[in-house]
Protein 1
Amino acid sequence: MFSNRRIWIDGKMTAFKAAKVHILSHSFARGSGIFEVMSVYPTDNGVAVFRLRDHLLRLEHSARDLMMKIPLSRNRLTQAIKQTVRANRVSHGLVKLIVFYPGFGLEVIPTDDKVSVAVAAFQFGRDFNMSKFGEDRFATAAISKWRKLDPRTVPVHAKAAANYLNPMLAKLEVRKRGFKTPVLLDTDGFVAEGATESVFIVKNGRVLTSRPEHILLSITRMSILQICADLKVPLAQKKLTPQDLRACDEAFFSSTTCKVWPICRIENHKLPAPGPVSLKLQNYFDLILAGKIKKYHKWLELVD
Ligand SMILES: Cc1ncc(COP(=O)(O)O)c(C=O)c1O
C-alpha cells in the first residue's frame, strides 16, 4: 500500500520499506523518541501545514525535557517537512516527525548520542481510513481506571514515545467497555485529557477545559482558546471533576487529527452532538483551516 511512499531520514528520501531502525536501538527499546504530528490542509492559497512553527517549538521543548540534542535547525526541519509533503503528494493529511536515538545500547540512558530525524507524510483516504471522520463523527467517552502520568514522575509536556503507554492502556480499557475514547483523570482525581486529545465541556454557555499542568500543551487546544477569545465565547481553564463531565451541556475532544470532535455520550450521560457552542467553534476552526480567515493565515505554513 505504501510502496511508492517516501520517508525523509537524516536528509535522504528513503523508500517506505527501507525506513528501518535496529531492533536494539535505544529509542525502540526504551521509547526515547520524541515526535510531532502535524496536519496538512488544502487552503485557498495552496497546501499548508497547520502551525508548523509551533509544532517545532514544542519539539524543541520535548528535546530539552529529555536532554536530547536535535541535530538540525528549525529551518532545516521546516524544509524537510515541506519536501516530504511534496514528495508524497499530500494535500490533506498528516505529517509525523520523529527524533530518535538510532544507536544500540543496553543502558537506560542512551550511550550512543547520535540523534536521527525522520519525517513521513500521509494522505487521508489514500493512505489510511480515519473512521473518526466517517461514520464516527461523534465520540463516546468513559473515565479510565488509569490515571494520567504525574508530572512529578515524567515530563508530561514532552511528546515522548514512552509517555504513550499510559493513553494506550486507557484506550484499550475503555474500548473493552464499548467506548471509543478514554478521559484520564490526573493523580489528584481531576480531569486531565483524552488518550491523544484535549477535553472541553460546555456548561451554561461557558467553555471549560482542564488546566495545563498535567496535560500535553496541545496546539489545537491553544488554537481553540484563541478562537473562543475571538468569538467572545466565555472560557475558563479550571480543575474539572468527573461530576462536571456528568453534568455538562456539551462536550468535545480536540487534537490535530480530530480537530473539534463532539462527544455524544460520557458514560451514561447523553449529550447533543454537536451542541450549539461546539458547532460554532468547529465551523470557525474549519474556516481557519481552509484559509478563509485572513487573520489566521499566519497559522498556515504554505508548502510551496
Ligand atoms: C496526550 C495528548 N494530548 C493532546 C493531544 C492533542 O495535541 P495537538 O492538538 O497538538 O495535536 C495529543 C496529540 O497527539 C496528545 O498526544
Protein 2
Amino acid sequence: MPKTTQRLKSRTALITGASRGIGLAIARKFAQQGCNLIIAGRDDKSLRQVSRELLRLKIRVLAACCDVRDRHSVDALFRSIPREFPRIDILINNAGIAHPNLPIDKLPFPVWKDVFATNADGMFLVTQAALPLMKNGATIVNNLSIAATRVFPGSAAYNASKHAARGFTNTLREELRPRGIRVIGLEAGATDTEIWKTLWPQAPRRKMMSAETVAEAVLAAVLVPPNATMETIEILPSVGML
Ligand SMILES: NC(=O)c1ccc[n+]([C@@H]2O[C@H](COP(=O)([O-])OP(=O)(O)OC[C@H]3O[C@@H](n4cnc5c(N)ncnc54)[C@H](OP(=O)(O)O)[C@@H]3O)[C@@H](O)[C@H]2O)c1
C-alpha cells in the first residue's frame, strides 16, 4: 500500500455511498492519510457508526444523509458543506446499485429507472453541485465498473447505466482538463461487497477482490504526481471471474 504521505493531509474528500463496501474502504484509506471526509449515503445509522470509527483517526468528518437520486437531497448536502469545509479537493462518486439478474424482456421499467437515477443521474447531480467548490489541482473519481466497457447478460440496466456514466466521465475529463481538475474512471471487476446480494446472491465471493484492494488502487491513482493523471483504473480479479 502507498506509504503515508503529506499529500492528502488536511485535504477534503467527499465520498458518496461511504456507509459500506468500496466507498467505506476508500474512506478508511483516505482517513489513514489524514484526509478530512464528507461521507454521504441514505442510511443515517450506518453513517453515524462509520463517522465514529473515522473520527478516531483524528480527522474531521461530516456525515450527511443524502439520496443522490434526489436533487433536493443533493442541494441540502451542498448547503451543509461550506459551513464545515471551504472546498472539496477530491470527489469520489461511488454510490451505486445493481439489480436482480433478469433478461431485458422481464426487467421492470421502475427497476431500469431506479438504476439509472442512482448510477447516472446521481453522478451528474453530485458532480454539478461539487464543481463550484473544486479548484485547480482537485481530483474526481467516478466509480464505474468493468460493466462500463463490457456487458453482462441479465444486467441490462446496470450495464447501460455504467456505459452512460463512462460517457459522462469522459466528457467531464475533457471539460475540466483546462481547469487542472483530474477525472479518473474506476473500472473495477467483481469486488466482495453487499451489492452482490441483489445481483447474484450465490456468487463465488472467494474469487472476488476485496474492497480494500480497490481502495488501494484509488489511493495510488489519486497520489500520482499532480502533473500527471491516471485516467482509468482497470482492476480485475486475476483468476476465475471478471
Ligand atoms: N462490488 C463490485 O463488484 C463492484 C464492481 C465494480 C463497480 N462497483 C461499483 O462500486 C460502487 C459501490 O458499490 P459496492 O460494491 O461498494 O456496493 P454496496 O456495498 O452495496 O455499497 C453501495 C453504497 O452506495 C450507497 N447508495 C446506494 N444508493 C444510494 C443513493 N440513492 N444515494 C446515496 N447513496 C446510495 C449505499 O448506501 P445506502 O444504501 O445507505 O444509501 C452504499 O453505501 C457502485 O457504484 C458499484 O456499481 C462495484
